[in-house]
Amino acid sequence: MVQLKDILSLSPMNLFPGSVLLGPMPGVDHLKFYIVAGVSGDKLCVCSVAINSQINQFIQKRPHLLERQFEISDKKYSFLSHLSYVNCAQPIKLKASLLSGNEFSLVGVLEEGDLSEIRTQIVASGMLTEEEIEMFFS
């Protein structure tokens, strides 16, 4: 797996599955953690998910969304300051270039087992088409 020391600058060409980025999210008044769950073969598009410090009420009241929240711990990942949740129910598909530049910084790398489970949960969410699953995860 690629190590943080191997990444010299954050650009679309060096985003890889398991990268954890910190950056802005539209409509949110603080920086958010993003996990790059998949990257298209041409490195132009990524599938990411957001990390939340708690599960909001909307999700808690909807079992199909609640079961797609993956817990990660600050004991395992030094970039976290407390127990957090990866929202696999709402994958974010975007151009890789939007995650590069000064607004985003690489803060960590997920362990392979956690990345694998997050990908499984994203696919199970039903929010990606078969074509998107092939593009991001094959």
Question: What's the short story on this structure?
Answer:
With 138 residues, this protein is of the alpha+beta class. The protein has helices at residues 57-60, 63-66, 112-124, 130-137; strands at 19-23, 32-39, 45-52, 69-72, 84-87, 92-95, 105-109.
Q: What report would you give on this structure?
A:
By secondary structure, the protein is an alpha+beta fold. It contains four helices and seven strands; from the N terminus they run E-E-E-H-H-E-E-E-E-H-H. A hairpin with a 5-residue loop joins strand 2 (32-39) and strand 3. The model is unreliable at 1-9 (pLDDT under 50).
From the structure above, extract its key features.
7-stranded antiparallel sheet, alpha+beta, 138 residues, globular
Can you lay out the helices and strands and say which pair or pack?
Blueprint: E1 19-23, E2 32-39, E3 45-52, H1 57-60, H2 63-66, E4 69-72, E5 84-87, E6 92-95, E7 105-109, H3 112-124, H4 130-137
Give, in order, the helices and strands: EEEHHEEEEHH
Number of strands: 7
Mean pLDDT: 88
Instruction: List low-confidence stretches.
Output: 1-9
Shape: globular
Please state the structural category: alpha+beta
Note the quaternary state here: single chain
Report the major sheet. Answer: 7 strands, antiparallel
DSSP summary: helix tally: 4
Question: Helix share of residues?
Answer: 10-25%
Distance between the termini: 16 Å
> Strand fraction band?
25-35%
Using only C-alpha atoms, the radius of gyration works out to 14 Å
